[in-house]
Specification:
Structural class: mainly alpha
Low-confidence stretches: 217-222
Strand content: under 5%
Helix content: over 70%
Order of helices and strands: HEEHHHHHHH
Largest sheet: 2 strands, antiparallel
Mean pLDDT: 82
CATH topology: Arp2/3 complex 21 kDa subunit ARPC3
Shape: globular
CATH class: Mainly Alpha
Radius of gyration: 19 Å
């Protein structure tokens, strides 16, 4: 297989994983759980990795491809919203006993998707822009700086936006106070920052692996 073909196949793989994580965030990720006294969404397990993927794609494939990745994730979230609403609206069969559960699970999805899509689009675009700003500023050196700097700032935007829109005064999924909400936002953000710091070696490893597999030493032009 030629290096060019591997180059494109790896981009397709990054896109598949990225979009899957985004869709999981808007479905499975709705549940809240407790960890060391903090209330966290299930999506904390995988959603921070979307920023790792964006950074690797930004480094290897350039800003244009990274933005395409972000837009594809947004489009799939929109598709999920449309088909969730269709699924709820279709008349239920008399032999299907789980309609109430179905609506309870997918009914709040529209607000989650609005919150998630708003936060996601804003944060991911900020992440790509900051990544390439620091890349230009450092003349392509210090990958750790643009990886962490872009992610830490964009995750702050993402965490505040999605939780404020989705949880505030939404008794279907959250019955806590404003103080509880701010505690969730702080706890989630701290975890995301720790994950961002921990995934720096993975960013270096991902960039090295793609370059080695494709014999590409430089990213495409932004």
């Amino acid at each position: 297989m030629s290096s060019t073909k591997r180059y494109e196949l790896l981009f397709a793989a990054f896109m598949a994983v990225f979009v899957t994580f985004v869709v999981l965030t808007n479905t499975v990720g709705v549940k809240l759980f407790t960890f060391q006294g903090m209330i966290l969404p299930v999506s904390i397990v995988w959603y921070p990795l979307t920023f790792l993927i964006t950074d690797i794609v930004s480094e290897i494939y350039g800003a244009r491809r990274a933005r395409f990745l972000v837009i594809a994730g947004f489009a799939m979230s929109l598709m999920l919203l449309v088909f969730s609403l269709i699924g709820i609206a279709l008349p239920v069969a008399s032999v299907y006993p789980l309609q109430e559960d179905y609506v309870n699970i997918f009914g709040p999805v529209w607000r989650l998707l609005f919150a998630s899509m708003s936060a996601y689009l804003l944060a991911q675009i900020i992440d790509v822009q900051l990544f390439h700003f620091w890349k230009r500023l450092t003349r392509g050196r210090h990958l750790w700086l643009r990886n962490n700097g872009s992610t830490i700032i964009s995750q702050l935007v993402d965490t505040f936006t999605v939780n404020a829109i989705f949880l505030y005064k939404n008794p279907a999924v959250f019955t806590g106070s404003l103080r509880d909400l701010m505690g969730i936002i702080l706890g989630v953000y701290v975890i995301k920052v720790l994950i961002a710091a921990a995934d720096t070696p993975l960013c270096y490893l991902g960039v090295w692996a793609v370059r080695r597999a494709t014999a590409r030493e430089r990213s495409e032009s932004p």
